[in-house]
Amino acid sequence: MEQKVKALFAWTTAGEKTARQIGEKYKAAGVEVTFHGEATKEELPFLAEERNMTHGLLFLDHEKVLLVSLTDEMGGFTVEITVEDFILPN
Fold it and tell me: Which residues contact 17 (CB under 8 A, 6 or more apart)?
């Protein structure tokens, strides 16, 4: 059974605009997106988990994003990606 993606979008001051723009695109495409607001790297996994999200994204600035996946059988993973790595919905 495929798990539905539910993503928590959080940001630093420098990443807010990009987080909102990308989050709205995913929302419009039917992905369940929750906007949290400002957060820290340390808070992100806990924020996503307590809201039963599959992913947490912390937009560090307009280029860098910290991605936390909570769906992995090994307990999840955290990786830093770039905005260019996103596959945006049309």
Answer: 62
**Contact assessment for residue 83 and residue 65, using Cβ atoms and an 8 Å cutoff:** yes
Of 5, 33, 35, 26, nearest in space to 86 by CA? 26
Task: Convert the pLDDT of each residue in 5-63 to its tens digit.
Answer: 899 999 999 999 999 999 999 999 999 999 999 999 999 999 999 999 999 999 999 99
What number of residues does the chain have? Answer: 90
Q: Using one digit for the tens of pLDDT, what is the confidence trace for 64-84?
A: 999 999 986 666 889 999 999
| End-to-end CA separation in angstroms for the chain | 26
Three-class SS state of 6: strand
